[in-house]
Specification:
3 strands; 19% strand; globular
Length: 88
């Protein structure tokens, strides 16, 4: 499978997570989920454990997954503009 195909499949899985966020929060609230082929294949509160387990289980297909945090809490983004000071 080409790199473009892998990126496309991962993007499809991320889109599926966004489209199904409501259903996911009912079953996987405040947990990390791994989605492959538009299906939740694993979830855990600990991202490192989930990633390690998923890499072993999915092997080469791990490159196709979406790994997303599912929560009902509002998303807060923090921007660090300190690195752009010299660009003015």
């Amino acid at each position: 499978m080409s790199v473009v195909q892998l990126i496309s499949r991962a993007a499809e899985n991320r889109s599926w997570v966004s489209a199904n966020c409501g259903n996911l929060t009912e079953n996987c609230h405040d947990r990390w989920v791994v989605v492959l082929d538009k299906t939740v294949v694993d979830n855990d509160k600990d991202l490192q454990k989930l990633a390690d387990r998923s890499r072993k289980r999915l092997n080469k297909r791990f490159a196709e997954v979406a790994v997303e945090y599912v929560t009902q809490k509002p998303l807060v983004m923090v921007l660090d503009l300190s690195a752009t000071r010299g660009l003015r």
